[in-house]
Amino acid sequence: MSAVILDGKAVSASLQASIREQVESHFTPETAPRLCVILVGENPASASYVRTKCKMAEKLGFRHEVFHFDENVAQNEVEARIDACNADPECDAVFVQLPLPKHLDSVALPNRVRADKDADGLTRAAMGALLLGESNAFQPCTPRGIITLLDAYHLDLTGLDAVVIGRSNIVGKPMSLMLQKKNATVTMCHTRTRDLESHVRRADLLVVAAGAPELVKGDWIKPGAIVVDCGFTKTPDGVIHGDVDFESAKERASYITPVPGGVGPMTVISLMMQTLESALKRAQK
Ligand code: NAD
User: Fold this and answer.
1) Strand-pair partners of 65
2) How sure is the predictor about 135, in pLDDT bands with cuts at 50, 70 and 90?
3) What's the fold here for domain 28-114?
4) Catalytic pick from 118, 120, 229, 245?
5) CA distance 177 to 147
6) In angstroms, rounded to a whole number, what is the distance separating the alpha carbons of residues 4 and 6?
């Protein structure tokens, strides 16, 4: 039996329709949600991520602006721009595209974004709120997108043995907190985990965010498991690889995300949803 595909592209498309409706009913083109992006240097992957986000913002009728700095920009110049976005009542959301060049402080700069404009959900304030289970803050976009995707397929996570591979700040750590909130029993695995395979074999729900192409073999998957693959690695021949061997895993899983077309579109739409939520608060003031 082949798994049901958790189609992030389709779920994103239906969310886009609802976001567009809300933009049309609450805003004019002059007052539409406005997303500000801080981009430094010429990293092609960063430029491509920013283009994807701006294209989606455009499609949804948002205003958007990219503040693109030279590779050698001084820390205080970027700080001044973030401060200006923070103070600008017309800016609803601001995020700093990572990675930053080495001479810039990659922790301090994203953390300078005001909590109520942190649509990326990655500042200390947002992470702290998530840890404390406070629901009024923005959340990291990739795990939020995964929860939205699982909800769209009405998957009840209560009591499931969930295994998360990867403990990064942007995916693994916040994912584990969100799965606990959904009443799953969570195990975190990482590079120092002994016998990764044995953990995967007992997972009812597996979320892989390792950045290690085809790390998880299909025959490790527990029959009927839900499999979410965040991995996104482009090899020099241009082929995109997930962290799970999709073809063999889909024969054992009950639900599985494809790569691409699973987690990626859900990350982008989460950023847009949080930008809209911020703009709606502005509109109510
Ligand atoms: P990261 O490098 O910051 O963290 C990777 C984590 O995986 C680490 O905690 C490490 O301990 C663990 N890990 C790595 N290799 C492992 C192995 N062999 N066994 C066990 N654990 C291992 O990466 P990240 O930023 O969390 O991203 C992970 C992957 O998800 C990447 O491929 C990235 O491109 C992708 N990603 C995709 C999206 C999206 O929207 N599609 C968003 C974020 C990340």
Assistant:
1) 36
2) confident
3) Rossmann fold (3.40.50)
4) 120
5) 11
6) 6
Of 97, 117, 222, 243, catalytic: 97
45 Cβ partners below 8 Å, 6+ apart? none
Give me the numbers of helices (H) and strands (E) for the chain, helices first please: 10, 11
Ligand 1 in contact with 230 (CB < 6 A)? yes
The protein residue with its alpha carbon nearest to ligand 1, atom 30, reads 231
As given in the structure block, the two tokens for residue 221 are 């998957």
Domain positions in the chain: 28-114, 141-263
Q: Whole-prediction pTM value?
A: 0.97
CA of 167 to the centre of ligand 1 (A): 8
How far, in Å, CA of 253 to CA of 244, rounded? 11
Going by their DSSP bridges, the two strands 63-69 and 34-40 should be labelled as parallel
Looking at the chain, the whole-number percentage of residues with pLDDT higher than 90 is: 99
Respond yes or no: is residue 234 known to be catalytic: no
Record the tokens describing residue 275, joined without a space.
């930008």
284 is catalytic: no
Estimate to the nearest angstrom the gap between the alpha carbon of 218 and the chain centroid.
25
Each residue's pLDDT tens digit, 180-235: 999 999 999 999 999 999 999 999 999 999 999 999 999 999 999 999 999 999 99
211 lines ligand 1 (CB under 6 A): yes
**Ligand 1 mean position to 281 CA, how many Å?**
33
Answer whether residue 144 shows pLDDT above 80: yes
CATH number for the segment(s) 141-263: 3.40.50.720
